[in-house]
Amino acid sequence: MKKLLMASAAGLALVGAASAEEIKMGISLGFTGPLESMAGPMAQGAELAFKEVSDSGLLLGGDTIVPVRSDSTCIDAAAATAGVERLITVEKVNGIVGGMCSGEATASLQNVAMPNGVVMISPSATSPALSALEDNGLFFRTAPSDARQGEVMADIILEHGINSVAVTYTNNDYGKGLADSFASAFEAKGGTVTINAAHDDGKADYSAEVGALAAAGGDALVIAGYVDQGGSGVLRGALDTGAFDTFAFPDGMVGQKLVDDFGSEIDGSFGQNPASGDAGRDRFLELASAAGFDGTSAYAAEAYDAAALMMLAMQAAGSTDPAVWKDKVMDVANAPGEKILPGELAKALEILKNGGDVDYVGGASVEMIGGGESAGSFREVTFENGEMKVVGYR
Amino acid sequence: MDILNAFVALLNYVMIPATAYGAQLALGALGVTLVYGILRFSNFAHGDTMAFGTAMVILATWGLQALGVSAGPLPTALLALPLGIAATALLVLGTDRTVYRFYRREKAAPVVMVMVSVGVMFVMNGLTRFVIGVDEIRFDDGVRFLISAREFKQATGLSEGLALRGTQVLTVVTAGLMVWALFWFLNHTRTGKSMRAYSDNEDLALLSGIDPERVVAVTWIIAAALATTAGTLYGLDKAFKAFNYFHLLLPIFAASIVGGLGNPLGAIAGGFLIAYSEVSITYAFKKVLGYLAPEGWEPEGLVQLLSTEYKFAVSFAILVVVLLFRPTGIFKGKSV
């Protein structure tokens, strides 16, 4: 009995000591599931920012950050919710980088994070539906909404002199959101959408989809899908039957795999994906390669930014309580203030400590608009002679 | 009125893709129906047997390509096919020895066998991924297009293109040859006749001295050959991805049940019926009708009966109707 008492006393002492100096932060990403290849570098990006701050010893009273990972699976909302619940109720985190995909992020935000008053900053959920979501000021994202991508894509297509397109999208929150926002933007700018049809991923045959798209016609085909899923299937079918010669690819399709698989068959097509051409991105890539992971992997920079914003907001608010620091996220992300690039978090903490103001730029040119989402900068690419060429940023 | 363009559009987007897809389904359904007819259970592992067989063919194809062997205008995979069939036959014979034989001796109920095959499906699924990975693999070489859409337009001056891929012709021709060989084997050889006898009446067949283990082994080898060929043709025509073969299982089962489980002829008819209904009922007839309609009468809407998301619903609606009115399938199969 005596031993037990001593052991529990020692345990209590340990817990007490730990909570005074260590801040736990959650990382809820899809480590297994359809985007598992992206989740690793994203988590490493977030942990890189946490480590940078811990090492600086400048956060609040020299606090250190302990990141806790949780698997959101990207497609299973129940699993993601359970994971976030564990982060909040068991690990007692003060903020969460995540979720990864729009549907799962919405579910865990509404079911767990909002009732418990914990902030979530998603690096990669891009559905336009999240902009209008009632979030009590607890949800932010460092990735641009697809509503913005829809606008950018509409501009790019019209600038190519194409006024009528067929649209096919992958049948989920991402695909439908992007296709709808693109269609309304394109029609508002005077273009015509001949058909806006879904395709399901992982199907055996896409002849039916290609047939319907071809029958509707149009000067180009917009494929709002995934390059390693049905998007490639539809593209292959459209190329083989000669239904379309020109294609417009949003972020789910633009990647090295597209070039590897289709080569010069897609010459003359074009696309765009979120990426910034600023100095911040180069700085982040250097940091990432020094830390031993691939910083060019999609949304890794956004994950770093999400983690950095949380800690800067804590410093600005002088508190680790999400209910307090949630109001500071927009302040540290936007002007006025000293511009902060990746690797300069110590400097930012110092400025905030002395009552100054910072404008966090980070690896993905963060500029928060509206209800707390990135304005977003996009990279426009074209495909020529079997290669992907960057045309510019917008 | 422009009948020629309308016909070419229909040919290009409905008839050719549906025929190739139908041939792939028919070969798959033949394997399912053969196992059902002789071993008396629905083999859910058939889709993943196809995936495994194709993976073996791909490995052999890479080997042949490394050696510099090619089949000229035909895909190298055709040369690798026998190796793939052999490897797959070994796998299914091994599975039969270690798993199915036990339940056969127990005289397990068909539903137990079905559950066993679901287990085998998951194991094969994992095995294929371990061997070749989960990524999409393209392994077609040789001549890709017999007629390409652009050349066809230039040559004929029509506004509609017609594309005919080498793999599509190859699929239909190979499927035809396989079906002919299977029928010849079942009708004219001693082993084929003993298989049919075993299928018709097991006890009578045993009394007349037919070795059941031999019949079972031959059935598995033929099923492996059909699965590997179907899988390889599908992979050549589209692309190989282990997960897609799992999805292929649904239309294959629909095809064999619609045709009549256990009836080889029904499997072929079912395959084409499912493929044509999937492609044509969800096809938007705007273009075709636009060519056929008199000036000024072209339709403005898509003239689409159902959106393409519902293409699977079409196959299953047919399946339900057939089961309601002809429970044994269109061609009289065994009752399910």
Uncertain parts of chain B: none
Note poorly predicted spans of chain A. Answer: 11-20
How large a portion of the residues of chain B is in β-strands, by DSSP E? under 5%
CATH topology of the largest domain in chain A: Rossmann fold
What's the total helix number of chain B?
A: 13
Q: What structural category arises from helix and sheet content of chain A?
A: alpha/beta
End-to-end distance of chain B, in Å?
A: 48 Å
Gyration radius from CA atoms of chain B, angstroms: 21 Å
Question: What summary fits the major beta sheet of chain A?
Answer: 7 strands, mixed
Q: Structural class, judged by helices and strands of chain B?
A: mainly alpha
* Strand count of chain A: 16
- The first-level CATH class of the largest domain in chain A is given as Alpha Beta
**Integer average pLDDT of chain A:** 86
Total count of helical runs of at least 4 residues of chain A: 14
Produce a short descriptive summary:
The complex is a heterodimer of chains A (394) and B (336). By secondary structure, chain A is an alpha/beta fold.
Give an overview in words:
The complex is a heterodimer of chains A (394) and B (336). Chain A has helices at 2-21, 36-56, 77-90, 102-116, 146-159, 173-188, 207-216, 230-241, 256-262, 279-291, 300-317, 322-325, 329-333, 345-353; strands at residues 22-29, 64-71, 96-98, 120-122, 139-144, 164-170, 192-199, 220-224, 247-249, 270-274, 338-340, 358-360, 368-369, 373-374, 378-384, 387-393. Chain A is of the alpha/beta class and 394 residues long. Chain A has 2 domains: 2-146 and 278-374, Rossmann fold (3-Layer(aba) Sandwich); 147-274 and 379-393, Rossmann fold, CATH 3.40.50. In chain A, the strands form 3 sheets. Chain A has a 7-stranded mixed β-sheet with strand order 2-1-3-4-5-14-13, with helices on both faces. In chain A, helix 8 (230-241) links the parallel strand 8 (220-224) and strand 9. In chain A, helix 3 (77-90) runs parallel beside helix 4 (102-116), helix 5 packs across helix 6 and helix 11 runs parallel beside helix 14. The longest helix of chain A is centred in the first third of the chain and has 21 residues, at 36-56. Residues 11-20 of chain A have low confidence and may be disordered. Chain B is an all-alpha fold and 336 residues long. Chain B has one domain: Orthogonal Bundle (ABC transporter involved in vitamin B12 uptake, BtuC). Chain B has 13 helices and 2 strands. A two-stranded antiparallel sheet of chain B has the order 1-2. In chain B, helix 1 (3-39) runs parallel beside helix 6, helix 6 (166-188) crosses helix 7 (190-200) and helix 6 (166-188) packs antiparallel against helix 9 (212-237). The radius of gyration of chain B is 21 Å and the shape is globular. The interface between A and B is large, with 30 and 44 residues.
